[in-house]
Automatic annotation (TrEMBL):
The lineage of its organism: Bacteria, Pseudomonadati, Pseudomonadota, Acidithiobacillia, Acidithiobacillales. Residues 327-476 form the Helicase C-terminal domain. Its EC number is 3.6.4.13. This is ATP-dependent RNA helicase DeaD. It comes from Acidithiobacillus thiooxidans ATCC 19377. Residues 1-21 are annotated as: Disordered. GO terms for molecular function: ATP binding; hydrolase activity; RNA helicase activity. It comes from the Bacteria.
C-alpha cells in the first residue's frame, strides 16, 4: 500500500468513489430516522448540507465536526421537541432529554454551537419525504393554477415589458472594454470630474471596496462625493457625485453621467441581475460601461433594440503581461509577489509557511472585512509586507502593484464541487501583475508545472461572448406591480417561483439564482404579520446581506421579527479581545446586517453608533491578529493547528472521536 493510501486510511479519509459518497451515508442515516427510502432524497439532503457549508464536500465529517448521523439525530430531536428557538433554552432541553444529540452539539465550536439552524435545514432538505408525523416547516408551494394569473399578465418575457424606461433611445453609451490595468476607469472618472454646475453623476461599483477607492480618488482631486453602500452612508451635502455599490442604484434619479463598472458581471448568476437592472433602468445622458471585451456583443444588441447610441473604445494594458519561462515554487517566491490560493484555510496555511521562511506577509480572503482587506493591501503597497497571500478576492477592487502573481492551486470550490479554476478568473487574477508607473512588465506563473500550463492556456484564450439571453434578471418593479394586481394574496416565496416560471424559455433573460433568496422568503412568509408589509418591502428585505455559512439566518429571522412586531432590536456586540478570528469575522457580518437594517428601518434598529463602533472593534482586533500571524484552530478543542495541516481537527480530537 502506498504512503498516500496509508495516510488516507490512518486519517479516516474516504477514497474517492460512489461507495463512500455522502449519498450513501445520508441514506443510512435517514433510514435510521424513519425517512422514506425515496430516490433522490439523500442527494437533496447532501446538496443542501454542502451548499450551506455544514457538510464538508471532501471529508468524512460535518464541517462543524459532527458525525453525519449525530447531526440528523440532533435535527430530528429538535423537530420532535418543537421547542422555542431561543438557543439557551433549546440547548438546555437537549442536555436534559436528548443525551445523544447533546453530545453531538458539544462537539460544535463552543462559541458557535447555536449559529446553525439545523432544524429548518434538515426539514427543508428532506421535503417531501419526511415521516407523516412531521409537518413541513414551510407552507407548501402553490400549484400551477395559482400562477396562471401571473404568467398571463402583459409584463411577461419581453424586455420592454419588464423595463419600460422612457430614457431608452435617448442615451449615449460609451463602452471602454479591455483587460485589467488598461485605464478604463480613468476615462470614466474624467467625465465625472467634468460635470457642469447643476449636473449629477453616479459611479456604480461591483464591490464596496471599489466604491470607497473611487470615492477617495475623486475627493483627493477636489470633487465633492457621497458614498452609499448597503451597510454605510458617508454623505456630503455639497456632493453632486455618488459612489455606490451597484445594488444601491437609485433608478428614479436622473444623471448627466453614469458609470457601470465590471459590466461582465451581468453574467454572474447570483449578482448579475444588478448589472441588467442598471443597464436598462439608468436614466442618464451619458452612460459609461466598463468591462471585458466579452460584453461587446451584448452592448451592440442592446443598442440595436433600444435605440441608444453606442460608441466602443478598446483599451490595451499599459504594461505587458508575460508568463515566466517556468513555474515558480513557493520557496522561490520573491518580495513584491502575490501568491493566490482559493480558500481561507489555504491563505492561513501558506501565510504561516512564508513567515517561517523569513518573509513578512499580508493576507486577504473573502470573509475578511473590507476595512481589513484595505489595511492588508496598504501594508503590501507600502512594503511593510513582502508577500501577499490571497484568494481571488484580489481579482478586482484593490490597488495592488505586484510585479509577479503566482497561482498556487488549480482547483476552486464552486459551491457544489471542487473544479478547475475558470479561465476568465485566471485571466483576471493574472492581470493583477504589473502596474502602470511601477513595472514595465507583469509576470504570471503557476506554483507547479501543471498549474503553469493551466494559466498559459487560459491566457491564450479570450472570454466567451456575453449576450441575450444569458444575462440574469431579478423581478422588476413593473412585473411585480402587475403580478400583485393579478394575484394580490400571493406570498413572496410563490412570487419568486412565478418569476422563475415567467423567464423559463425567455429570449432575453435568465432567472437569477434564487436558492438563498427562497430560503429567506420561506422565513419571511412564515413569520406572523409579514402580509402587512408591501411586496416591495418584502423583496427589499430579501436583499439583506445574509451569509448562510456564517449562521446568519437566525439573526435575519430575529431582525425581521422586530420589524413585524414593531419593537426596537439591540445591536449585536463584538466578542472581545480573546475571540478567535472566525468569531470576529462572524461578529462583523452580524453587525453589518444590523447596519443594513438600520438604513431601511431606523426606528427598529436605532443603535447605529454602537453597531458602527462594535464593528470597528472587530476590524482593529482582526488587524492585530493578522499581524501576529493568523492561526487555524481545531474545530473541536480550539487548539492551534500546525501550519501545513490539511485538516480542520487536531490529531487528539480525531482519535477521541474514533474511539
Amino acid at each position: 500500500m502506498g504512503s498516500k493510501s496509508r495516510r488516507r486510511k490512518q486519517r479516516g479519509q474516504p477514497k474517492q468513489g460512489p461507495t463512500t459518497s455522502w449519498n450513501g451515508a445520508i441514506s443510512i442515516a435517514l433510514a435510521q430516522l424513519g425517512f422514506a427510502a425515496q430516490s433522490g432524497v439523500a442527494k437533496r439532503v447532501a446538496d443542501a448540507l454542502i451548499q450551506r457549508g455544514i457538510l464538508a464536500a471532501e471529508g468524512p465529517f460535518i464541517e462543524k465536526n459532527i458525525p453525519l448521523c449525530d447531526l440528523i439525530h440532533t435535527a430530528w430531536d429538535m423537530r420532535l421537541a418543537n421547542k422555542s428557538h431561543e438557543p439557551d433554552q433549546q440547548y438546555r432541553m437537549l442536555l436534559s432529554h436528548h443525551p445523544r444529540s447533546a453530545q453531538a452539539l458539544e462537539r460544535l465550536q463552543r462559541d458557535g454551537r447555536h449559529r446553525i439552524d439545523i432544524k429548518a435545514l434538515l426539514q427543508e432538505a428532506s421535503m417531501p419525504s419526511a415521516p407523516l408525523s412531521c409537518k413541513p416547516p414551510y407552507p407548501p408551494i402553490v400549484g400551477q393554477q395559482a400562477f396562471a394569473p401571473i404568467l398571463n399578465i402583459a409584463a411577461g418575457r419581453h424586455w420592454d415589458h419588464l423595463f419600460p424606461n422612457p430614457q431608452l433611445g435617448a442615451r449615449q453609451l460609451e463602452a471602454y472594454l479591455g483587460p485589467t490595468n488598461s485605464g478604463k476607469t480613468y476615462q470614466a472618472l474624467q467625465a465625472l470630474k467634468a460635470l457642469k454646475p447643476g449636473e449629477h453623476g453616479v459611479y456604480l461599483a461591483p464591490l464596496r471596496l471599489l466604491a470607497i477607492e473611487v470615492c477617495e480618488e475623486l475627493r483627493s482631486q477636489g470633487v465633492a462625493v457621497s458614498l452609499v453602500t448597503g451597510e454605510e452612508r458617508d454623505l456630503d451635502p455639497q456632493a453632486r457625485v455618488v459612489c455606490s455599490t451597484i445594488e444601491m442604484l437609485d433608478s428614479d434619479q436622473h444623471y448627466a453621467v453614469a458609470v457601470i463598472d465590471e459590466m461582465q458581471m451581468v453574467a454572474d448568476e447570483q449578482r448579475g441581475w444588478a448589472w441588467t437592472q442598471a443597464l436598462f433602468e439608468l436614466s442618464a445622458d451619458r452612460l459609461f460601461v466598463l468591462g471585458s471585451p466579452a460584453v461587446e456583443p451584448l452592448l451592440t444588441a442592446f443598442a440595436k433594440i433600444t435605440g441608444d447610441t453606442l460608441t466602443v473604445h478598446h483599451t490595451k494594458r499599459f504594461t505587458q503581461l508575460a508568463m515566466t519561462p517556468q513555474a515558480i515554487s513557493p520557496k522561490a517566491l520573491k518580495p513584491g509577489s502575490i501568491f493566490v490560493v482559493f480558500s481561507r484555510n489555504s491563505v492561513i496555511r501558506w501565510g504561516e509557511y512564508f513567515r517561517q521562511s523569513g518573509h513578512s506577509v499580508a493576507q486577504i480572503y473573502g470573509a475578511m472585512p473590507p476595512e481589513v482587506r484595505r489595511e492588508e493591501a496598504r501594508r503590501f503597497r507600502a512594503g511593510e509586507a513582502a508577500i501577499l497571500v490571497a484568494t481571488d478576492a484580489v481579482a478586482m477592487g484593490l490597488n495592488l502593484p505586484a510585479h509577479t502573481v503566482v497561482i498556487g492551486e488549480g482547483e476552486k470550490y464552486n459551491g457544489r464541487i471542487s473544479a478547475a479554476v475558470p479561465k476568465p478568473l485566471i485571466r483576471q487574477i493574472a492581470g493583477r501583475a504589473g502596474r502602470y508607473g511601477h513595472h514595465d512588465v507583469g509576470h504570471a506563473a503557476g506554483a507547479d508545472a501543471a498549474i503553469h500550463r493551466q494559466i498559459q492556456k487560459a491566457l491564450n484564450k479570450t472570454d466567451s461572448a456575453i449576450n441575450f439571453p444569458t444575462i440574469f434578471a431579478a423581478p422588476t418593479r413593473t412585473w411585480i406591480d402587475r403580478a400583485m394586481d393579478a394575484a394580490p394574496d400571493i406570498g413572496v416565496h410563490d412570487l419568486l417561483v412565478a418569476w422563475q416560471k415567467t423567464l423559463k424559455g425567455s429570449d432575453w433573460f435568465t432567472c437569477m439564482d434564487l436558492t438563498e433568496t427562497l430560503d429567506k422568503a420561506h422565513i419571511l412568509d412564515t413569520l406572523a404579520g409579514s402580509h402587512r408589509l408591501s411586496m416591495a418591502e418584502r423583496l427589499q428585505i430579501l436583499t439583506a446581506p445574509v451569509d448562510v455559512r456564517a449562521g446568519q439566518m437566525q439573526h435575519f429571522r430575529r431582525m425581521v421579527a422586530a420589524i413585524l412586531e414593531q419593537r426596537p432590536h439591540h445591536s449585536p456586540a463584538c466578542s472581545g479581545t480573546r475571540a478567535q478570528t472566525e468569531e470576529l469575522e462572524s461578529d462583523y457580518k452580524h453587525l453589518s446586517l444590523y447596519c443594513w437594517f438600520h438604513y431601511r428601518y431606523p426606528q427598529f434598529f436605532p443603535e447605529i453608533h454602537r453597531a458602527t463602533a462594535e464593528r470597528e472593534r472587530c476590524v482593529q482586533q482582526l488587524i492585530v491578529q493578522i499581524r501576529q500571524g493568523l492561526k487555524r484552530h481545531c474545530r473541536s478543542c480550539g487548539k492551534a493547528l500546525p501550519a501545513q495541516s490539511a485538516y480542520g481537527i487536531c490529531e487528539r480530537c480525531y482519535r477521541s472521536q474514533r474511539e
